[in-house]
Specification:
Distance between the termini: 39 Å
Structural class: alpha+beta
Strand content: 15-25%
Number of domains: 2
Number of strands: 19
Number of helices: 17
Length: 437
Amino acid sequence: MAHISAEAAQSKPIETIRPDSLPEVQDPNQVADALDKLVDHSEEHADVKQSIHAPFHQLYNIPLIHKLIPGLEKLANEYHVGNFVIVRSTGEKIFESMPIYPRLGMHLMFYGGTQIKLLHNRSVEAVLKDLSLRQGKVYDSPESVKSIPSFVNTYSIGLDELEQPDITKYKCFNDFFYRKLKPGARPVQNADDPLGFCSPADSRVTVYPTVDAAKQFWIKGSKFSIASLLGVEPGSEKARMFEGGSVGIFRLAPQDYHRFHSPIDGVLGDVTDIPGQYYTVNPQAVNEPGFDVFTDNKRSVLYMTHAQSNAPVAFVAIGAMLVGSIAWTAGKGTTVKRVDELGYFAYGGSTVVILFPKGVIKFDDDLLKNSDVPIETLLKAGESIGQSVMPTAGFNAANVLRGGDVTQNEASSGAGAGAAAGGWDVWGTVGSKCNVL
């Protein structure tokens, strides 16, 4: 996304996505056809500004879009199409222009369930899935390396921090997209503090002390709940474990480093894959009451146990429009430190949502303040997001499942007591005792 200063962005209002925001587009087939042509265009052109990556304010680079979607140029002239974010290191408020593909994808989402002629009378959801898989194949092909130099230049991606800085060594675009960094490129902030939690990714972050607060300020989908996010039944052990808990939302844009890392010191448990849709996770979709992107999208849930408190943590990797896959590189039973790699997203924007049980984490004040606005904060993997406020080995899973307090009682207190209380039978951590690391 192109960065624009807040002052420059004030000349035009931010667009509010509505079904009638493109009044000349009455047929979802027009939007689907435009996205279809964009995928083809991306395969043909090395310049990413001629592809799905084209920032909305540079639509003039793709003449065919004007013919397919009348009114886009007028929209770009009247509104800023994108989102404000806060740069944590400076406190500066900047504007990030939205690429063309999530904007078109959001418009198509208003026609959810509609059968469209493109791709053999399939539903909108099926079309988005098909386009996502096609784009993934395009960027898995050896020919896609031609787009890497333009991608690097368009988004000013620094090569010095890459494990392989020579872009001619990558085998395809996706190989570069989930590039690795040099060891130590993402140090842990406050690494000596055993109570610390860190950002799992280079991302735009919002945090809330309760899921209810997240629903008030940020996640407006009517169906969002802990159970629906985790893909479990309401009232199940996993849903009850996080009742009243805290949530962190970490949105990755296409230009970001797309490997994700452990936010905690702890032990890895089971992974549950949940099939779903391929909607955009842009904030304007997340903030739209009619869309349930986090609970409708394809996602994969990793259950973890925090070493210091014995508390469970749910790490939810959520795919998005044009995301090819979610891959885990660390396995069940592995002991991890903060910023140890967990996995990566293949091409596309994507999101990580982390759930903490009630009373486990106090998020950093600046993140809470920005999230209440609400506005996202730009963080790097390893930067602090908060601290544990629970005593060592203090989480009592058995108490929670009985409807009691989250902490240990006197009879079961002490190091390792969370494990003895059945703390990780729920997570499938193969009986390992997760003591302080």
